[in-house]
Amino acid sequence: MAWRSPARAWYAVLLSGAFVSARLGFNADRRMTVWPVEGMALYGQSSDDEDDEMPTGQGPAQNTGNGPRTYQRLQKTGGYRAATYGFQNFNRDKIEVSYQIPEKDFRPYNESFGYTKEGINELKAWKETARKSAFNLAVKQGKSQAQLDAAVAAIDKEYDVKVKEYLASHGFRMLKGNVVTVDMPKLVAKNAALIKPLSLNFEKLATQRKYRSPEIIGAVLSFVQSAMYYKQPDPVYKNKHTGGVLPPITAVVVGWGDCDTKTGLLGSILSNWSQMKMVGVGVPGHYLMGVLLIPEKGDLFLEYQGLQYVLVEPAGPAWMPPGQVGEETMNLLNSREGYKIEPFF
Fold first, then answer.
1. Three-state DSSP class for residue 128
2. Which of 93, 173, 235, 266 fits a disulfide with 89 by CB distance 3.0 to 4.6 angstroms?
3. Cα dist. 172→12, 182, 208, 239 in Å?
4. Which tens digit of pLDDT belongs to each residue from 292-327?
5. Is pTM, for the whole model, over 0.70?
């Protein structure tokens, strides 16, 4: 199915930086910070629940306030995993979307995310072996201390590269101070193509109902907010460091996620519209997103590189349209610690 042309509103959005309205949002350059927690920057919190899946079947997602009636049907067989979700858009349209993936594809996908202590230890063992070999070679060939130091420095540099490559291959990155965190922009970029079948569900719906960009964004946002349970993944599960995040496809087939998990899923789905530009917004203990849109009256937004990004709160269970965030999120955005922006494009 071919993608349709973007709504005309998107072209106006691209010019929005030249016509900046009254500032309702925040300064994107203010107090950029990262918050390490025991050596790892975590946007989610840990959970004592060791179960990695919701029960298969149909039931309402946990939403609060005046949210819509929702349901999810999850199936797991020896051959495939499937999920069907029913919910309402913010204009009260009833929506149903589904996703299916063969088990032979899901298993390696799910296992590829997250790094292990054993994986890091293997690299440390390589470094120690390489250092010993360099020392023995220096003694055998009568090299100077300066030559040995240079050889060891080269090994240490290669080790750092290997660690970064290992983390990157498992969805993580290393920041300054040896802080390890989930690489959210790359997670979104990698999963855009993988989650495209679900995006096509929304695309078909948008074509049938003549949705423009705001309604498309609202439909996907309502899905992750209300149709998926809110549950916080463990930062370490079955000896694997997850950063407190589920990868997008895993979140869809198990039916739940927390703030950063749902943000990653929302960003991955919306990335299939080439004109869509998004930024991740990290505050202490929480993660949300901004979408490039012309703010309407009362919308909360931030400015990044001269463009306006309307804030969206994917976490749920509260049902909040684009431009609205929870009171606690507002307090975090305005707190002394500040917030961090990560472009998803």
1. helix
2. 93
3. 35, 4, 39, 16
4. 999 999 999 999 999 999 999 999 888 999 999 999
5. yes
